[in-house]
Amino acid sequence: MSTRVLVLYGGKSTERDISIKSGRAVSNALKKKGYEVIEYDFQNHIEDVVKDANPDVVFIALHGKFGEDGTVQGALELMNIPYTGSSVFASALCMNKLFSKFMFREIDIKTPSFAYFRRDNTLPYSYVSELLGNDTLVIKPVDQGSTIGITIAKNEDSYNEGLAKAFELSDLVIVEDYIKGTEITVAIIGNYPDIHVLPIIEIVPAHEFYDFESKYTPSMSKHIIPARISSYQKALAEEYAKRIYKEFGLRDFARIDMIANSSDVYVLEVNTIPGFTETSLVPDAAKAENISFEDLVDFIVQEALQRKR
After folding, report:
1. Could you tell me the pTM of the whole model?
2. Can you give the residue ranges of the ATP-grasp domain (predicted)?
């Protein structure tokens, strides 16, 4: 009797369209591997969906709020249903960029200097740029993925516009020191201590940074494998990724985004459910080690099934 997998995708977040692509790609891969697959464009009533599907495991291909933030994971925990990816706590921690940055500091990992604001206590551009030691600042909503709501601000006007844009999406906003360098990402699969670091990818976006359009529009970015960084930077990036995977309690698969400048490596954020089409970053890294998309998806499901109680 084949294993029954419920694939959740879609959802209500700003990353809905990407989630649908990920979910359908995962579903097709699982069918090729002989699984019984039930696809569901998740909106609500998770209990009813799981009850009707009666799956052996749930593959969560939801991105952003209500999927990557521990919400769905918590519901599945209450129903005692195994699911792919990280736990409730780890998912919530990584979705919140501010808490992640506090944790990076706690475990001795470099991350860009930052300030954070609520709507009613922002500070002017001149003060923040002096505080962070840079005229170029990165403004981010605290709990969005796929670089949604991000602005590179270089003056008072773009700073104020960036804050307004970010506050449309979140009640809390981070302002970071902009670090110019090579954008890289490190994917890890497995469960600690049996984890495997995939080849580091260098991302060359068409725009100033790896924004939403660069991520999801064909030919708008290049993935270079292996990344063109020094052996020191490679070793440091891998060490940072492994440390984060362990200390954050990540499971099955994750992607850690970083910047490598002329002398160092800085961690930007952690993605617990990164994009999962056949041309997404994690599958690309796996492909560089001759791991097919179908085998990668199968591996993740098998890892999750080991947690079945």
Report:
1. 0.92
2. 101-302
pLDDT in tens, 191-250: 999 999 999 999 997 766 544 444 445 556 789 999 999 999 999 999 999 999 999 999
Say which of 146, 170, 214, 221 is annotated catalytic: 146
Give CA–CA dist 285/195, Å, rounded: 15
Residue of 19, 91, 100, 280 marked catalytic: 280
Give the CA-trace dihedral at 48, 49, 54, 57, to 10 degrees: -130
The verdict on whether residue 171 carries a ligand-binding annotation is no
- CATH superfamily assigned to domain 114-177: ATP-grasp fold, A domain (3.30.1490.20)
The answer to whether 271 is a known ligand-binding residue is yes
Task: Please state, in angstroms and rounded to a whole number, the distance separating the CA atoms of residues 54 and 195.
Answer: 30
CATH 3.40.50.20, applies to 4-84? yes
**Annotated catalytic, 280?**
yes
State whether residue 300 is helix, strand or coil.
helix
